[in-house]
Amino acid sequence: MNKNIFKPVLALCAAAVMGACSLDEYDPLGTDTSTSLTEYEKWYGMQTKCYEPIYSQLYTVVDFMSVAEAGTDLWLTAKNSDNTKELFYYESLVPFANKYWDKAFIQAYTALGTCATVIKNGEKMEQTDAVKTLYAEARFLRGFYHLLLTTYYGPITLVNHSVEDGADLNPKRNTLTEIYTSVINDLEFAMNNLGTTPYNNNRARATKKSALGFLCRAYVQAAGQGLTAPDGTSYWDKAANLAADFVADTEAGGSKYGGYLYDDISDLWASNNNRTNKEALFVAAGADASMDTETWNNANAGKSKLFTLFYWNQTLCSDISKITSDKQNYFYGRTNAGVFAPSKYLLDLYTPSWDKRWENTFQTSFGGFSMQQPEWLPYSSQSIKLSPKVAKLYGISLSMANKYIYPYADCAALPSTSGGNQYVASVWPKGETSGDVSKLQKPKNVYVMDYPVAEDENRIFLYLSKEKMTAEDKVNRIYACVDIDDLFDETGAYLSTNVGNAWAGKYGQTNPLYQAYPCLNKFQWNYEGVFYGSNLQIKNGDVYIMRAAEIYLIAAEAYQKLGNGGKAAEYINKLRARAARPGVTAETYKLSNATEEDILDEFARELCGEHQRWALLQRHQAFRTQLPKGNKRAAATYRDIHKWRPISQTFLQQIDNAEEYGDNGYGTTAKSGLEGFEQ
After folding, report:
1. What pLDDT shows up at residue 2?
2. In this structure, how many other beta carbons lie within 10 angstroms of the beta carbon of residue 585?
């Protein structure tokens, strides 16, 4: 990986938050040669840096994921753990003790200082085609960051002045109306001035469809705050019209906006499509040699740890998985940090008999791996001869004793000059037990296993079953079987122990699989170029910040809010159609009239884990109704102040009027700071 070509920026921006240095001071090469650079070169370097928080922090690590998905109806802590109870359950929530919301706030404001400087100086540049495009990108990014901040933190301070204008240590909040007006103006400008092809063909840069997508988000988020457009038009109307236009254009070929929707949901999540995804509207790009002249190919780019947040650690059943060290888990990665476990409510939303989103969203079948190709872990050494003792421990029929569980995947160790060894996995065909690497196959996604699991499957060690399985269902299966419902206690929380409860009676007091759960596999990538060498906590895949399916859902959401549930259902049915299994009739999944509950449920099925759930519940004012469905523990402690995340303590400590500015009502300042601004 190349070294980061930009220096860290620690100056205060015009709103007295972390921001950027001035263009005169800026040296994109991090050297003493800034005087030899043209104004355009310095401006271009700073413009590129506007993207940095997106690919290096916001969409790669736990901070923003915790802001955007934790504390909702979709996610619980594994083993009902308390170590992140502030995030998931609003318990003991003391703002200065929680780094996640603080960091996300600062990351967004850091970029705003840079955006403001780029915008001001861009207006002074010779207006070449390149400058016009890059200027429109900066306007998009300013709208993007302001929208992120107001979505989660409410009435914040707009940063529309360059750092060159001086710092304001007594910032004032803006009203929600002022903020959304600014956001929408920026996004409309970007949509009207960006092309359908990204600048320099760099997939990480914003395009027309990026701006359209976030404009749709801004419309519905503003509508959810009870706001109306300056011309008196309903923001729900604006969202419905723009989203419908995008869908119509997409279905006609996408010539206007560049939109695309895969016909088959499995193609969306195929490994070969991760870095060339036609459905993506905007991405946090992973490091890639094709972008080596841009900031995305640097020491910070794309070092995503998101997959680790959603996976349980397979070493807990090493006697049947053969995975003995999380530091050498070349197939799943180092999965010792799993905390986001799907709620029963979320899992119950899926009907796997027709919906392929089930296995393309959650991994429920787990197999071991060999490394026959590099001769690190021979196939024969990773095949497990099931002993009677191990069979009894995992509730496997003793008739399976002395039979073999074979590896599911085989991982290569391809040398690479960018990122170290690449542990690309192939799959051993079912029934092929020779260990002959010429027999290996390349599926679309190695973490998506066929549903339903065959009774005679002998390449997996664990199956988490959506349907309840009887003893007769399990007797001829060599792998451990756990009913997903049995992973939860009577309150809907995950089991914290395997002793003294129903688990012990059904599965045995020593069976460790109560700690397993279905794993979100949207960030579990496997292809050449995605690995970060021996650091198995990191993968360099592209994270889809927004994709076309969300615009279909926004269209449905807006039409339902406007009282047209029939029209809303049409957009939901389009997404269901591409998720349906072959042979399934439309009558199986088709909606005729969508309710608000249908909208919330379909957003969950399609977009769970994609940094959107908290925002959706916020704009529907649905925490009180949804938390009891999926997160009873949070429902018991949720209070009205939680409608906004707390203002950053780092920010409040830097300004002179913290007590007046307020922390959104969390009690660390004399005032909430919200009065008069939530309008």
Report:
1. 24
2. 9
Lowest-pLDDT range of 85-94, 289-298, 481-490, 533-542: 289-298
Distance between CA atoms of residues 648 and 39, nearest Å: 34
Residue 84, pLDDT above cutoff 60: yes
What are the C-alpha distances in Å from 284 to residues 271, 275, 281, 507, 554? 16, 10, 11, 42, 21
Q: Across-strand partners of 544? A: 283
Model confidence at 28, pLDDT cuts 50, 70, 90, reads low
Phi/psi at 57 (5° precision): -140, -60
Half-sphere exposure (Cβ direction) of 290: Cα atoms closer than 13 Å: 10
Q: What angle do CA 250, 254, 255 make, to 5 degrees?
A: 150
Beta strands in 285-427 (DSSP E): 340-342, 362-363, 365-366, 369-370, 384-385, 404-405, 409-411, 425-427
Query: Any idea of the CA torsion for 47, 49, 55, 58, to the nearest 10 degrees?
Result: -100
Asked if the model's pLDDT at residue 382 lies above 80, the reply is: yes
Structure tokens at 616: 């959706």
Q: What is the pLDDT of residues 304-354, one digit of tens each?
A: 999 999 999 999 999 999 999 999 999 999 998 899 999 999 999 999 999
Determine how many CB atoms are found less than 10 A away from the CB of residue 109: 25
Confidence of residue 291 (pLDDT cuts 50, 70, 90): low
**E strand or H helix that includes residue 238:** helix 235-251
Query: 23-28: long-range contacts at Cβ-Cβ below 8 A with a sequence spacing of 24 or more?
Result: 23/117, 23/121, 23/164, 24/164
Cα separation of 192 and 508, whole Å?
Answer: 63
- Hey, is 368 helix, strand or coil? coil
Higher pLDDT, residue 35 or 514: 514
d(CA 437, CA 444): 18
Query: Average pLDDT for residues 565-588, to the nearest whole number?
Result: 97
Q: Are 653 and 642 spatial neighbours (Cβ–Cβ below 8 Å)?
A: no
Q: Token digits for 265?
A: 């949901």
Backbone angles phi, psi at 520, to 5 degrees: -60, 120
* Whole-angstrom distance, CA of residue 527 vs CA of residue 179: 41
* Spatial separation of the C-alpha atoms in residues 651 and 109, rounded to whole Å: 10
pLDDT > 80? residue 300 = no
Q: What is the model's pLDDT at position 97?
A: 64
Nearest CA to 341 among 366, 317, 312? 312
